[in-house]
Design a protein that fits this description.
Elements (H helix, E strand, L loop, with lengths): L2 H40 L2 H9 L3 H4 L2 H6 L2 E4 L7 H8 L4 E5 L2 E7 L4 E7 L2 H18 L3 H15 L2 E4 L9 H9 L2 E5 L5 E6 L5 E5 L9 H41 L13 H49 L5 H32 L8 E4 H15 L4 E6 L1 H5 L2 E4 L1 H18 L3 E8 L3 E8 L33 H11 L3 E6 L6 E8 L9
Parallel strand pairs: 10-12
Antiparallel strand pairs: 1-4, 2-3, 3-4, 5-8, 6-7, 7-8, 9-11, 12-13, 13-15, 14-15
Helix pairs in contact: 1-9, 6-7, 9-10, 10-11, 11-15, 12-14, 14-15
């Protein structure tokens, strides 16, 4: 995976994670702010309604004023905001933030406002409720306490039960506090408050209060999971929609190519992931288009190249019927044999060119001396063309770096094609210059022939191309030799090009390829 693509993907995932985190924190804070405000009014509501139903709560519970600054005042004479007044008139319990806690307000039966101040809503309200329960139970007969406990539990929305079993006893530390006073408030591991009361007759009563406010309530967690999942699903949908659109474009181009539109190509776009696929697909399409073009070109060219020797063979066979003497018969047979040899060489050239064009042969690179191959080719061609001077120029430094990773048979074929081609057009001299350094190999084949016009330098490497239309079987060639040379160099990671020889004045063909090449590069 390219580092740039990895960093881009990492940045997007980090940004998405940060977005989801910020969204969840904002949602968490906003919801809990509203929930806590509602809980601050809902939790003390049973206590405040209980006080509102008693005619004179300040006199009946005289200790409320000293503990919780319990007051009563007229609604019309108060400086309460309009919205708070409307809520009180609707019978709601209102919790107003103060400098040292909260003020709990409720409207009693006479239309006056009851105010109770608390510092910690959960603790102070729990203690106030516990004191009220103690106040009522302490003066009752034991026979009526159970019924009173049930009534108080229902009205104050808590659980009141007597402690009658050893297993119901609270921890010893709580019992010690109860012994020193009338009640002791303690919290369990879950945070829920329990209050133990000690009545005058020594009986213990346990009050289990409602649970405190929890920021991690199930609806909040569910909503955060739902929002996070929705954001991630949306991000995944947008990402996959882009990928799907790109893949559909690739699919569309593949269908067009299958219908015969070989020139169709995929637009890469900005997506790094799909752009690599598009680039590979376009390379494949270009390769297929080139192979189809080469195939069509070969079909036309081969049909033309085969027609001449086949026609000569047919004519020679017909002439055999009229031959009366042995010499004439032998000449016709020799001509037919030459035509068959020409067909065999042509077929070999075509097969070699087809293998190189259709993906290349399976190269088995070995470390071989290039200078030895050059000398071998020069020796072979010198024996064939004894009327020419064919020489190899190899320096000492080249001999030192002569070992190269090559396919010896194909490099031999490439150099042989160039030397043979130079020998056909040279007047008297062909020179093969070999130069090898630590990185590259270069072989130049020069001749003193007429040379090649500069405008035709690229054309000579085209399959079945002949710059001289007057060439015959004797002057040689099928127009495939130089195409084979270029393809061999291509599969070695190099190049073949043509120029003008400054030393001999004729053509100069050059082969250049890397001296060392890994097997992974041959694909």
């Amino acid at each position: 995976m390219p580092p740039k693509f990895f960093l881009k993907l990492y940045a997007r995932l980090a940004g998405l994670t940060l977005l989801v985190l910020m969204l969840c924190l904002t949602l968490f804070w906003g919801l809990n702010s509203v929930r806590e405000k509602a809980w601050q009014e809902r939790y003390p509501e049973p206590l405040m309604r209980w006080l509102a139903e008693i005619p004179e709560p300040a006199s009946y519970y005289h200790w409320l004023d000293s503990l919780y600054d319990f007051r009563r005042f007229a609604l019309e004479q108060s400086d309460l905001p309009r919205l708070v007044r409307e809520r009180l008139e609707y019978g709601q319990v209102v919790a107003l933030p103060g400098s040292d806690g909260r003020r709990l307000l409720v409207l009693d039966q006479r239309g006056e406002v009851l105010s109770l101040s608390v510092r910690d809503t959960y603790r102070d309200v729990s203690e106030a409720v516990a004191l009220i329960v103690w106040w009522h139970l302490d003066g009752m007969n034991p026979e009526t306490r159970l019924e009173a406990m049930e009534q108080l539990s229902a009205r104050l929305e808590l659980w009141v039960e007597p402690i009658e079993d050893q297993s119901q006893l609270p921890p010893e530390e709580v019992l010690g506090r109860v012994a020193d006073g009338r009640l002791a408030l303690y919290r369990k591991a879950s945070g829920q408050a329990n209050v133990v009361l000690r009545l005058s007759d020594g009986k213990l009563v346990n009050l289990q209060m409602p649970p405190p406010f929890s920021v991690w309530s199930l609806p909040v967690v569910f909503l955060m999971v739902l929002v996070s999942g929705s954001v991630l699903a949306l991000a995944l949908f947008l990402a996959m929609r882009e990928v799907d659109h790109s893949l559909r474009s690739v699919e569309s181009v593949a269908v067009r190519i299958a219908r015969g539109e070989l020139g169709a190509r995929v637009e890469a776009g900005d997506s790094t992931l799909v752009s690599r696929l598009a680039g590979s697909f376009n390379s494949m399409a270009e390769h297929i288009q080139r192979l189809v073009g080469v195939q069509q070109e070969m079909i036309h060219a081969v049909s033309h190249e085969l027609r001449t020797p086949v026609a000569r063979i047919r004519f020679g066979v017909q002439m055999l019927e009229g031959c009366e003497d042995q010499d004439t018969l032998q000449r016709q047979l020799d001509g037919i044999d030459g035509d068959i040899q020409e067909l065999d060489e042509l077929i070999d050239e075509i097969l070699t060119y087809a293998r190189l064009e259709q993906g290349g042969p399976v190269f088995s690179l070995t470390e071989t001396s290039v200078t030895d191959i050059v000398r071998q080719v020069v020796g072979e061609q010198q024996r064939v063309r004894q009327d020419l001077v064919i020489e190899a120029l190899i320096g000492e430094e080249t001999e030192y770096w002569s070992l190269s990773d090559i396919e010896p048979r194909y490099i031999h074929r490439a150099i042989q094609n160039l030397v043979g081609n130079a020998g056909r057009y040279a007047h008297s001299h062909v020179r093969v210059v070999c130069h090898i350094d630590e990185d590259n190999c270069r072989v130049d084949v020069e001749d003193d022939g007429p040379g090649i016009p500069e405008e035709d330098w690229e054309k000579v490497f085209t399959a079945f191309a002949r710059l001289d239309d007057s060439r015959t079987r004797t002057s040689g060639g099928y127009g495939l030799g130089l195409s084979i040379v270029r393809r061999i160099l291509y599969w070695h990671g190099g190049q073949a090009f043509v120029g003008r020889s400054e030393a001999l004045g004729g053509a100069k063909f050059s082969l250049v390829w890397p001296r060392k090449k890994s097997l992974d590069a041959i694909v």
